[in-house]
Write a structure and sequence with these properties.
about 220 residues, alpha/beta, Rossmann fold, 5-stranded parallel beta sheet, 3-stranded antiparallel beta sheet, 9 helices, binds adenosine monophosphate
Amino acid sequence: MKLILLGPPGAGKGTQAAQLVERFSIPQVSTGDMLRAAVREQTPMGLKAKEFMDKGALVTDEVVIGIVRERLQQPDCESGFILDGFPRTVPQADALAETLSVLGKDLDAVISLHVETDALVERLVGRRSCRGCGRGFHISFDPPAKEGVCDSCGGELFQRDDDKEETIRKRMEVYHQQTVPLENYYRQAGLLKAVDGMAPIAEVQQQVLGILQAL
Ligand code: AMP
C-alpha cells in the first residue's frame, strides 16, 4: 500500500496515518516529524528548517525532497508507506513521481481530507503532543486523563510552536497557495479520493478503509 494523505494542517492526516500504520504494518513518512526531529537534534539542516517552520512557511523543496528520497529507500518502506505532509508543492510531487519510478513503484491512492477552515483553527489551537512518545491529544476533543500528562507514557504534553494562532493563519494561506493545486494534479492522474474530514475520527477511518478496499 503506497498512499499519500493530503489535506490542510489539522485535517487529521497524522491521526489517520497512525491508525493505518497499525492496520497495515507500513511506516508513516511524515516530513513534519522528520524536520522536527532534525530541529531537536540541532543538525545544520534542522536549524535552517526551523526558520521557515517558525514562520509557518514551507521548508525548501530541495531539503524535503532529499529527506523523502532517502527515507523511501529504507527497507521498511519496501512493502509500502503512508506519506503525511508530503508532497506539498507541485515540484515535490514531480520529484516523488521520479523517485518512485526509479524504485519501480506506483502510488495506489491519494486520500484528500476535507475540513472547513474554522474547524481547522480550533483543532490546531487545542492540539497537544507528548514529548515522550509523540502521541497526540486535543484539550477539548481528546483530552488526557490528567492535564498536561500523556495517558500512554506519562510524558509531558506540549503545544507545537507553529500551532499558535498567528502561525496557523499563515500555514493555511501557504496551504491554499502551494498545496491545493496538488488536488488537480492527482485528480488528473486518477489517484485522488476525497474524504469528509469533518466526521468523527472513527468514521473518517472507515471512509479511508472503504476506499482502500475498493482499490
Ligand atoms: P506538519 O507537521 O506537516 O504540519 O509540518 C510542519 C512544518 O514543517 C510545515 O509548516 C513546514 O514548515 C514544514 N514542512 C513539513 N513538510 C513539508 C513539506 N513537504 N514541504 C515543505 N515544508 C514542510
